[in-house]
UniProtKB/TrEMBL annotation:
The gene is NAP1L4. Pfam families: NAP. This is Nucleosome assembly protein 1 like 4. The keyword Chloroplast does not apply. Transmembrane segments: none annotated. It comes from Sciurus vulgaris (Eurasian red squirrel). Its main location: nucleus.
Amino acid sequence: MADNSFSDGVPADSGEAAKNAGSTEKLTDQVMQNPQVLAALQERLDNVSHTPSSYIETLPRAVKRRINALKQLQVRCAHIEAKFYEEVHDLERKYAALYQPLFDKRREFITGDVEPTDAESEWHSENEEEDKLAGDMKNKVVIAEKAAAGEPDPRGIPEFWFTIFRNVDMLSELVQEYDEPILKHLQDIKVKFSDPGQPMSFVLEFHFEPNDYFTNPVLTKTYKMKSEPDKADPFSFEGPEIVDCDGCTIDWKKGRNVTVKTIKKKQKHKGRGTVRTITKQVPNESFFNFFNPLKASGDGESLDEDSEFTLASDFEIGHFFRERIVPRAVLYFTGEAIEDDDNFEEGEEGEEEELEGDEEGEEEDDAEVNPKV
């Protein structure tokens, strides 16, 4: 019987393969003639060719060698920039000493230890005449009411710092209702910079008058900073950054610790079946947890996402106290600084809206030029 696997000396399998190859080639030609497919392929090729890293890979070895030399120069620039920020820190320390007498006087006015003179109390506002008339009328009414009630004038500026906590969203979110009576005893907040030759850091000092909650006259929070390029990633350096912080121990009076709460729990004995009630202290949300911060991991272990967020928020609050709250306290008390911040944010949003409008306008122009599209 004849073998049908060959025909004219050509294997049957080879003929089938040739037939399939012809079909594939025909299909490929049809696909490549599709303009949409060609456009998609061209876009992908354009994206690949325009990637900076892919472009660098195509350069000759001699050029890459020169680029590496430029990176060496960039690292040296980063180290010079670090020195610049160290000198800025020295200037901050120098001018902090010049600001301090003014801040000390501010504290005296707030606490009522010193009464400002008429010259020190004079302030010219934009609507000075209207404000003066309205203020005079209001003062007369208030004085008359107090005289009738026999009330004395308040001492200093009551609840000055507590009002700032209440006005600033970043701080008010931390304050619980049971924190409020304690914060009303806050008399001053100071910033102290690290001494010359010491690692870069700053300390926030919260000064309290004697109160029924704790015996500390001052609560402190120390923020440690780093101002040098990272050896593993020197190009990420953008100036000093807070890398860790330390709090302090609060000497709470008996039964006054708002950072813990006592809960009661029932326990049943496995053998006898008797039930007993035990009390246990558990952490409680409070602003005063600010002085018992989460520690940055220093042993190479990474923090979980929630811990990293908590630590980053803590650093942001510390920076805000140092840069905004302490230097401009009266403006956060009156709300003027908060209004300035809000106006700035609204301005940024307005610019984005204008840019979007321009883009839409350009699209309309294109439509007019190409009416067939």
